[in-house]
Every structure is written in structure tokens, then in C-alpha cells.
Amino acid sequence: MSATLLNTDRVIGTGPVAATVPAESARRDAVVLRSSVEAEIIPLRPTEQDGVPPLPVDPRLVAEILSERRTHRYPPQLAQRAIRWSERVLATLFPHFSASIIEATERSVLSDLAATESGLIELLHRLPGAPLDVRHIANLFTHSLASIRSTLAEDAQAIVDGDPAADDRDAVILYYPGFFAIAVHRIAHQLQVLQVPLIPRLLAEHAHARTGIDLHPGAVIGARFCIDHGTGVVVGETSVIGRGVKLYQGVTLGALTVDKALAGRRRHPTLEDGVVVYAGATILGGDTVVGRGSIVAGNAFVTRSVPRDSLVDRAGRHRPLTVPHEDVIDFVI
């Protein structure tokens, strides 16, 4: 591809596409890219007229940016809009998340629920390839809020019951990072169940960035779920977590291998009801099941299934748990 140069003071860059600075004062703030195929005018500041020499422009960089902009499908601020919507959902379910005083009337509750649904409809309409019946999906989500709130209330109470440092339920909801991550997860997971694209991961990564807790929205998590401290917890996409499970910081529920061919298949472990996993433990594999009521030691590395009511040591070996929470002193918490 040959370049056609305009009348210029200076040529910036080399190669098949030439970037030039026009001499005309009316076009002093532009760089012109001219090729045998197309011409593009790209703003460039500062210029020599501003007292600063123009920066060199790599024409390949300009071409790549132009290509990215022309093929970009997502609307501006999609992530920010999704986050604001999720914050509105949380504030509707629990006044602890509200940025202002909320009116305590039945009418205001119904109004907030309606606003949550209409906000989701607007958000879904912005998605490229959005679901055809966005109103139906939004309505299904609204009807799921009763279950979500009930489950979150159980989660908060489980944290209060199991953490001596927890003052009360209000404190847990207000500032516990584990509860916030779980709350966002339950919203994101319901959207995932409804096959909403993109938004579940946006919400999950928002909670991840804020808390350091990485819960994939595809993970199935039972009620009375407790994450203590939480920093560094990772729960993979196909994980299944039963009721009354407690995870400490640095726990990983991951896959044995990272292979794109395994997408859509079970890759992550199952924790049955009442399992406790102490800090830094790693449990891997889609066939790995930690049985009901078992305790996994801190820094344990587990890749095989464990019978119910077992004590798993750091080497991944297990034996019957004859006394609840025996040998906890050996765990890292």
C-alpha cells in the first residue's frame, strides 16, 4: 500500500501509511493519515505551535486503535451502569447499603422493586445480542429477590454465629467484606442462571476488586455460607458448595488443569454441608468431593475425595473426625 503525502511541514512515522502534519493553519491540530484505501484525520496535541514538539506517531498503532474502535460492540460505561444497578438492588434488599435515608413505607418498597426491574430492563437492552425477552428475564429476576434476600439473611446470621469478632447482624451487613462478596455473588449467580451475558462477570469482578474475594457467578453456593476475612479466596465456575460451609482467607476451589477444551465441564470441587476449610487450603478437581462435616487443615492440598466427617491434614491425608474440630491448633487461621 503506497502513501499519498499532502502538502506538509513534517512527516511523522514511516511505513505503508504516512502520518503528516498539514501546513494549513486551519488544520494545525490534526494529523492526516492518507493511503490508497482511505484517509483519516486524527486529532493530535500538543503541536509545535503550542511550544511542544509533536510526539512521533506509529501508524500501526493508529491503525490498530481505529480497528478496535470500529469493531467495539459495547456501550460506554456498561460496567459502571451494571455496578450502580447492583448497588440499587442491595440497597432495596437491605437499607444498610443505601447512600441516603430510605422511606419505610410499603409504597416505597414497591417503588424500589419496580425501579430495580426497570433498571435491569434498561441494562439488558444495552447489551449486544441482548436476550429477546428482556422484560420476562427482568421479571423473573425480580421474583427471585425474595429467595435471594432470605438466603443472604441466613448468610449474615451464620457469620454472626461463627465469628466471635462479629458484633451483630447489622455490623456484618455494613462492613464485612465476606458478606458483601456473597451478596453480589447471589445477584450475579441469579443473572447467570437466567443466561444473561456479560453482566454476571462484571458484577463478580467488581466484588473481587473491592474485597479480594473471587467468586465466579457460575458457582452454586448454599445458604449460611461464611467467608471469614476472605482475602485471596477463589471459588471456580463449576464449584458446588453446600449449606453451612465456612471458608477462611486464601482458600482456592480450583481446577486440576487449565485447558480450554474443558469449558462447560465440571472442573471444580464439591464441598458438602458443614465443611470448614482453613486458611490457605487448595482443593482441586471436578471429581473431588469433600464429605459432609469434614474439616480441611490450613495449607492443605487436596485432589482426591474425602469421606464425610473427616479431618484432612496439610498433605491431603484424611482420617475420621472423632471429636469436632480436633487438632484445630495445627491449622493456619
Would you mind describing this structure in some detail?
The protein has 333 residues and is of the alpha/beta class. It folds into three domains: 8-68, no CATH class; 78-212, serine acetyltransferase, domain 1 (Orthogonal Bundle), CATH 1.10.3130.10; 219-333, Hexapeptide repeat proteins (UDP N-Acetylglucosamine Acyltransferase, domain 1, 3 Solenoid). It is 35% helix and 16% strand. It has seven helices and 19 strands. It has a six-stranded mixed β-sheet. A five-stranded parallel β-sheet has the order 5-8-11-14-17. β3 (30-34) and β4 form a beta hairpin. The longest helix is centred in the middle third of the chain and has 29 residues, at 134-162. The protein is globular and about 80 Å long. The model is unreliable at 1-41 and 328-333 (pLDDT under 50).
Short description:
The chain has 333 residues and is of the alpha/beta class. The protein contains seven helices and 19 strands.
Helix count equals: 7
Main β-sheet: number of strands, strand sense, barrel status?
A: 6 strands, mixed
Number of strands: 19
Strand order of the largest sheet: 7-10-13-16-18-19
Distance between the termini: 64 Å
Which ranges are low-confidence, i.e. pLDDT below 50, for 5 or more consecutive residues? 1-41, 328-333
CATH class of the largest domain: Mainly Alpha
**Element order: H for helix, E for strand:** EEEEHHHHHHHEEEEEEEEEEEEEEE
* Radius of gyration over C-alpha positions, nearest whole angstrom: 27 Å
What is the approximate shape?
globular
Estimate what percentage of residues fall within beta strands.
15-25%
CATH architecture of the largest domain: Orthogonal Bundle
